Amino acid sequence: MFAREGARVMLAARTESQLEEVARKITDDGGTVRTIPTDVSKPEDLRRMVKEAGSAFGRLDILVNNAGVTWFGKSVEEGTEELYDRLMDTNLKGMWMGCHYAVPEMKKAGGGAILNIASVHGVMGFNRQSAYAASKGGIIAGSRSLAVELAPFHIRVNVISPGAIRVREPVDQVVQRVGEQFRAEFLARFGDRMPNMRMVFQPLPIVGVPEDIAYCAVYLASDEARFVTGANFMVDGGLTAQMAQMKEADPEVKEKRRRLSEEIQAWIAEKEKERGRGGVEG
Q1: How large a percentage of the chain has pLDDT more than 90?
Q2: How does pLDDT run across 198-212, given as a tens digit for each residue?
């Protein structure tokens, strides 16, 4: 989306195959793009990414902190320190360190725009998501302070908090537990039901797509948003606009969610046991 608007893009992600796929699409559309494998939980990777972007394009105007992980359906008792640290290192520390390295380059350029991707979890409570919510709430609060700190340098800082967006990330979390060989089976069994069950929370009867976030990001990074900083844009189908009871108060909806959650957890447990028995190579 940024490339279509004329931006020269530095793509950063852990998986080189994903980088190559997205870069190919940008190039095919006539855009300018560079790629750099980056693990945002590692500050040195972020430092190198910012340096490469500055060297390749001569300046840095926009930073989008979009990387994030969660854990799937684990309570505070089931979570571990290792999982917690991995989540915070990626979601919260990764955002802050990205800003740490990018801000000096933006000051050299005379200003810039920073977009930090949080979540509705950062402003609402959800079951079994305490650590994830803490990381996203930290992004929102930290971004407000950064907006105040960086305003004198004409660097704007805003947040986008997505709601139910159809992305692969929840599936990836399951695959991390059960093995890549079960991805297709999981998608075939649960893929269509998961976003539909998330949609029952919100007034707007559709599920968002990544482009919905991208359009908002392009606006916030543009000169049209020159007077917007310190804001948190809720791209959530109206989820956070409604009263607390939502549609979850409907006993039938609540029961469907409960059954789906139990079915997914049972499936995960079965596949983990199957891997443990060595029945499937992975």
Answers
A1: 62
A2: 566 788 888 888 999
Pairing of strands 112-117, 155-162: parallel
Select from 178, 225, 170, 175 the least CA-distant residue to 198: 170
Highest mean pLDDT among 9-18, 135-144, 249-258, 271-280 belongs to 135-144
The residue from 101, 132, 215, 219 that is catalytic is 132
What CA dihedral angle connects 92, 140, 156 and 204, to 10 degrees?
120
Residue 36 has which token pair? 């750099």
Residue pair 235/217 in contact by the 8 Å Cβ criterion: no
pTM > 0.70: yes
3-state secondary structure the chain: CCHHHCCCEEEEECCHHHHHHHHHHHHHCCCCEEEEECCCCCHHHHHHHHHHHHHHHCCCCEEEECCCCCCCCCCCCCCCHHHHHHHHHHHHHHHHHHHHHHHHHHHHHCCEEEEEECCHHHCCCCCCCHHHHHHHHHHHHHHHHHHHHHHHHCEEEEEEEECCECCCHHHHHHHHHHCHHHHHHHHHHHCCHHHHHHHCCCCCCCCECHHHHHHHHHHHHCHHHCCCCCCEEEECCCHHHCCCCCHHHCHHHHHHHHHHHHHHHHHHHHHHHHHHCCCCCC
Say how far apart CA 172 and CA 170 lie, in whole Å: 5
Is 219 an annotated catalytic residue?
no
Which residue is listed with tokens 């998986």? 15
Over residues 148-194, the pLDDT tens digits come to 999 999 999 999 999 988 776 567 767 777 888 888 888 888 877 66
